[in-house]
């Protein structure tokens, strides 16, 4: 399994988003639309092992809003 990150801009960025390629599938994250993978079909449950893998490689601060008290 190979993963290549093309773009990682955290939630605090004006244009937050993640774009990666894993096993020749495009995986994207957007704060408004959430996660998407090019392997998903309309019948899928909107999650696949590609998304889980990419999400696991990222620090949680990239895709989650900071809680009160965090800088």
Q: Measured on Cα atoms, how large is the radius of gyration?
A: 13 Å
Helical segment tally?
2
Relative helix content: 10-25%
Strand content: 25-35%
Overall pLDDT score: 88
Regarding quaternary structure, how should these chains be classified? single chain
Order of helices and strands: EEEEHH
Unreliable stretches, pLDDT < 50, 5 or more residues?
A: none
- What best-fitting shape do the alpha-carbon axes yield? globular
Structural class: alpha+beta
Distance between the termini: 35 Å
Q: Trace the largest sheet across and list its strands.
A: 1-2-3-4
Main sheet record: 4 strands, antiparallel
Number of strands: 4
């Amino acid at each position: 399994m190979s993963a290549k990150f093309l773009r990682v801009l955290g939630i605090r960025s004006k244009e937050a988003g993640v774009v990666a390629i894993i096993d020749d599938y495009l995986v994207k994250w957007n704060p408004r639309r959430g996660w998407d993978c090019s392997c998903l079909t309309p019948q899928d449950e909107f999650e696949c092992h590609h998304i889980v893998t990419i999400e696991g490689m990222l620090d949680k601060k990239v895709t989650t809003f900071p809680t009160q008290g965090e800088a």
